[in-house]
Amino acid sequence: MRYLLLSDIHSNLEALEAVLEEASGEYDSILCCGDLVGYGPDPGAVVDRIRDLKPRIVRGNHDKAVLNLSELAYFNPLARAAAFWTREQLSSEQKEYLRILPQGPLILPEATVVHGSLLDEDEYLFAPLEAGASLQLAWNAVTFMGHTHVQGGFIRTGDGEILPIRHPFLQADKPGLLSLLPDSRYLINPGSVGQPRDRDPRAAFAIFEPLENCVKYLRVEYPVKTTQEKMRKAGLPDYLIERLSVGK
User: Fold this and answer.
1) N or C, where is the chain less crowded by C-beta within 10 Å?
2) Interior angle at CA 113, CA 72 and CA 64, nearest 5
3) Residue 120: CB partners within 8 Å, gap ≥ 6?
4) What is the mean pLDDT of each run of 10 residues along the chain (248 residues)?
5) Which of 84, 86, 79 is CA-nearest to residue 237?
6) Which pLDDT score, from 0 to 100, does residue 72 have?
7) 203-209 and 214-220: which strand pairing?
8) How far, in Å, CA of 15 to CA of 186, rounded?
9) 74 Cβ contact partners less than 8 Å away, ≥ 6 residues apart
10) Residue 73 has what pLDDT?
């Protein structure tokens, strides 16, 4: 079984379709770390597309926000404005799909899926110190997370050291390939499909191959300007539009 890993699509239909096309034939099932909506111009279309794909999925904070299930006071003004706009674009059926998304952690035989962390679905894990508690708690050797929009993650080595995922853990001749070691535990972020924040504007995703004990981090170009034009026509904030060009 090979898994396509998606997270933080954020109503960006062009990015989602580019990822699905690029990954075609390379996976058998989908795992999604949440945040289908928010920020982007096509919340309804993204919800419908994901619903049809039938992924194993957990909810994100923006999925909650459009249903009044999270405190919008904690959102910055731009994210709050996008959440209010998104709420008005969704049908009752689309809102119901978001409402029934599980909170997580979603514990599967081969991996665990969360949005933020194993301790709190809204927790951001940016540094090894922050990741330590989740790695200590982890039920599976591999936990997939999103929320930060940064492709990568963290590893707890066999001797207990917690490190960000980068070289030498990524193979030097295949910089997107992470070989999973049997004595280590991993928090793996496939990156954001619809709003990357690691200074690479390409849509981010990953492929998990349990039988090969590896994760492949991948990127794909998508028509950013098409998405931006849709956002302008919708009257979404300029900053949210421009950030797509630079990936931050």
Assistant:
1) N
2) 20
3) none
4) 97 98 97 98 98 98 87 85 95 97 96 97 94 93 97 94 77 78 95 96 97 95 98 97 97
5) 79
6) 79
7) antiparallel
8) 26
9) none
10) 75
Coil vs helix vs strand at 191: coil
Omega before residue 109 within 30° of 0, cis: no
Domain ranges of the chain: 3-246
Q: What distance in Å separates the CA atoms of residue 64 and residue 70, rounded to the nearest whole number?
A: 6
Question: Hey, what long-range contacts does 226-231 have (CB within 8 A, 24 or more apart)?
Answer: 226/14, 227/12, 227/13, 227/14, 227/15, 227/40, 227/41, 230/41, 230/42, 231/40, 231/41
- Predicted structure pTM score: 0.95
Closest CA to 126 of 43, 34, 189, 207: 189
Task: Determine the Cα–Cα distance for residues 152 and 196; give it in Å rounded to an integer.
Answer: 12
pLDDT at 99: 96
pLDDT of residue 168: 54
Contacting residues for 107 by C-beta, under 8 A, at least 6 apart: 139, 140
Residue 217 sits at φ, ψ, to 5 deg, of: -85, 130
**Helix H segments across 90-223?**
92-99, 128-137
In this structure, what token pair is assigned to residue 64? 């909650």
pLDDT of residue 89: 97
DSSP category for residue 73: G
E strand map for the chain: 3-6, 29-32, 56-57, 106-107, 112-113, 142-144, 152-156, 162-164, 177-179, 185-189, 203-209, 214-220
**Topology (CATH level 3) of domain 3-246:** Purple Acid Phosphatase; chain A, domain 2 (3.60.21)
CA angle (68, 122, 31) in 5-degree steps: 95
